[in-house]
Backbone:
């Protein structure tokens, strides 16, 4: 970030040798008094061809609970298209950028084909934080699966790539904290669908004050937008207590949605219920089983991700992907209660051809034994009758 002179309150860039009150704070104050924060957004809104730092805004490509996303062009030191996300009013810009800077080194170490890189961060002239990311030309994973009417197998293939991306990030010490369909876009690479996880590092930078107070709940619901993907521990007061297993929970919600069409708890119902009930549901209520839709392994795998007690979830995204591999290869999955019958049936399914051959062989053998016994019997009875 390179701002010569900044407002100590909101972080807005100020003209050099500026004295007196910050105009951005004054405007915000006036609009807040009149309850017109939406108007504030309009007054301060960016438009195409505006410059933000060294990025030229081209076209608005998305709008989330937290801000607006633009397709933009970077001219120096390299010319490239980027996605630029400008955070809405209401966040402490300095804190947001400070938290991002703290994680920047770790973010730079992430290098995975299924992760969109976060390239830069800064503050707009009106003092709002912005993030610059790799531009992904794709649609969100749930939409992609539905548009292309993907079968379960293909959905699992995409999901397992997401697991690999998350595993990579975790190994580099980065937790996403906000995994959900709108943060996983599917693009095409040589005609092959390829999921890309976006917004790595952003939830941590922008989510410092989540749910610390009932009064921020409305703002929280608006900002985060998707409590459906929030793990039980993320609804707590202590945001420091979040670890990689919160991402495993969110992966479970995503898998649930990819397989059934809906997350286990709908965001709208959670938000409407109010903060206490939302917390209770996420922390205590068992998610509806998938059993009528996908039986056995997949149900168990999803439920293991959604365990309220995080020590009972998969310890890593790799372990989760591994269990899906087992399922696809008809091997026993670790999420199942391993009864003898379950293992035998998996063995039988895995070696179907071999078992069919053995069965035919045993059958032939048995028939042969019966025939030869019968023939032996009739020969003996022939000899016997001749002797008599
Ligand atoms: N790096 C990117 N490349 C391409 N499109 C993007 C990128 N980042 C975001 N978008 C688009 O912008 C939309 C809004 O993104 P944004 O992250 O602001 O909101 P969200 O993920 O829906 O919700 P939240 O604000 O809770 O993160 C996305 O759904 C996506 O379509
Ligand atoms: Mg997002």
Residues:
């Amino acid at each position: 970030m390179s701002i010569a002179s900044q407002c100590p309150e909101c972080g807005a860039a100020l003209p050099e040798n500026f004295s007196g009150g910050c105009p951005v704070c004054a405007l915000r104050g006036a609009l807040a008094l009149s309850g017109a924060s939406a108007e504030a957004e309009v007054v301060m809104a960016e438009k195409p061809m505006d410059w933000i730092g060294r990025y030229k805004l081209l076209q608005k490509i998305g709008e989330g609970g937290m801000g607006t996303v633009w397709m933009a062009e970077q001219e120096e030191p390299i010319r490239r298209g980027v996605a630029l996300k400008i955070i809405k009013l209401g966040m402490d810009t300095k804190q947001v950028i400070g938290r991002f800077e703290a994680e920047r080194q770790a973010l730079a170490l992430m290098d995975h084909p299924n992760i969109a890189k976060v390239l830069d961060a800064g503050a707009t002239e009106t003092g709002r934080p912005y993030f610059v990311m790799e531009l992904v030309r794709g649609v969100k994973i749930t939409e992609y699966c539905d548009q292309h009417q993907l079968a379960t197998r293909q959905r699992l293939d995409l999901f397992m790539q997401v697991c690999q991306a998350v595993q990579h990030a975790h190994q580099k010490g980065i937790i996403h904290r906000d995994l959900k369909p709108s943060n996983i876009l599917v693009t095409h690479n040589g005609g092959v669908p390829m999921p890309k996880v976006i917004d790595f590092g952003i939830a941590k930078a922008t989510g410092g004050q989540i749910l610390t107070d009932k009064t921020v709940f409305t703002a929280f619901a608006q900002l985060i937008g998707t409590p459906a993907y929030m793990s039980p521990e993320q609804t707590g007061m202590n945001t420091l207590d979040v670890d990689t297993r919160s991402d495993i929970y969110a992966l479970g919600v995503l898998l649930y949605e990819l397989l059934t069409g809906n997350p286990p708890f709908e965001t709208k119902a959670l938000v409407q219920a109010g903060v206490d009930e939302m917390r209770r549901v996420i922390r205590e209520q068992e998610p509806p089983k998938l059993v009528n839709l996908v039986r056995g392994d997949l149900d168990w795998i999803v439920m293991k991700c959604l365990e309220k007690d995080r020590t009972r979830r998969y310890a890593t995204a790799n372990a989760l992907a591994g269990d899906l591999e087992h399922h696809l290869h008809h091997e026993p999955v670790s999420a199942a209660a391993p009864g003898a019958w379950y293992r035998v049936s998996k063995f039988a399914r895995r070696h179907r051809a071999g078992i069919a051959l053995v069965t035919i062989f045993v059958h032939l053998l048995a028939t042969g034994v019966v025939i030869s016994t019968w023939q032996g019997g009739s020969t003996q009875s022939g000899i016997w009758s001749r002797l008599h």
